[in-house]
């Protein structure tokens, strides 16, 4: 009896709160929410597709209730501009899930920080110091070393007689470049030797990443329904242990750098940069550690995924593949390998990277922003505390803005040069405004370089017996969009054998 009264009272309070919100504000339309669960009961796993379908029914701005939290999703250029330009400052906070709050120590890093003095300071460190054009250039040898290592590794595997004409799992090679590039850039460490074997510190690093994902997933169930949380309590001990383990590894690496700096001076890696700048910007140790791990979280999978999608499109579109190779042969030739210096002479290659990021942005809903005050967007109210998502995937496929949007046609960017770093609201793979991705240029360079090397060195075909049309272009659910079926492909070398050697550089 007592329990049923309690449940009834609880349901009544939630219903009353929901009705109060509905009538106090003019909220965007959307699918009918149920008490307590909101729309969670009918959100399909691939969320950006589901929100797109709903936007076709309810319009380009919709309300979606995650339990009792209002999430507003906008799906066209005009509204994206309102969110990311006109109301940028009011919509620049972050929603922190319970696990994100724990991992970031309540937003002491960059990704999970709310907009405020701390955020502005850390963002300045990123813009002026970590991602400055000078540092990007200084770290170029790492990127070029890693892409040539990828080429060498693919060459070894595809010319191995045991693998004769067998397909390779493309993401294995892309993942290694992304992993090595980001750990070297952030920590100044290549945890993997030339045979692909990971050292003890690297194993610890990988275990920490995997454990973080596991801990995050363990809380996901009750994230949006607060009263269910007693069923999924935060395992404080496990989070504390995880944090301590992450700090221990990062501190050990920081100490190695402090020692090395005394003998050979500061290097360009982020860890050295942050330790050197710690006093100038008054950065706490938690912030330095948080920032280093932010780079891993945000910079590792995004680049590898973008290239995997691009390669799938290139295999499905042999015409584009061939045209890119003709450009590479003309500009780079058959006697040397591509470098980033060649990019300005390879417009078609750059258009391919852009077209892939248009059709397959690795974070299709960006990261959710949170309203720090009541805001009006598209004539509707967005109450303080709601989350706002820009469906950049839908924006970049809008038939009102793009001609034949579903077609993979890089030429569209030769005909009209559309910016993709936050200045043109039709194309927003990196977001825009205050929270635009600080690693955008680095990401673009790495994606373009990986694509350029893959195309210059190899011809790519689907696995034997499979036609290009049969490649599964479905997406996996999640904040970051992996291919549902990892791409398998058959590479065939097309350059002289001496051009397939890694050019190892130790910086
Ligand atoms: C193709 C590659 C990449 C794509 C498509 C991408 C995309 C994005 C997007 C959409 C956001 C969210 C923007 C927002 O909330 O409005 C973001 C944030 C961020 N990205 Fe990237 N990113 C890429 C590569 C990188 C790389 C290589 C790094 C660093 C090494 C990086 C670091 C970050 C950080 C630190 C944030 C958080 C910014 C903030 O909250 O202020 N990203 N990225």
From TrEMBL:
GO terms for cellular component: membrane. PROSITE patterns: CYTOCHROME_P450 (PS00086). InterPro entries: Cyt_P450, Cyt_P450_CS, Cyt_P450_E_grp-I, Cyt_P450_sf. Pfam families: p450. It is a single-pass membrane protein. Its main location: membrane. It is found in: Membrane. Heme binds at residue 437. GO terms for molecular function: heme binding; iron ion binding; monooxygenase activity; oxidoreductase activity, acting on paired donors, with incorporation or reduction of molecular oxygen. The keyword Iron applies. SUPFAM superfamilies: Cytochrome P450. Keywords: Heme, Iron, Membrane, Metal-binding, Monooxygenase, Oxidoreductase, Transmembrane, Transmembrane helix. Its cofactor is heme. Belongs to the cytochrome P450 family. This is p-coumaroyl shikimate 3'-hydroxylase. It comes from Phacelia campanularia.
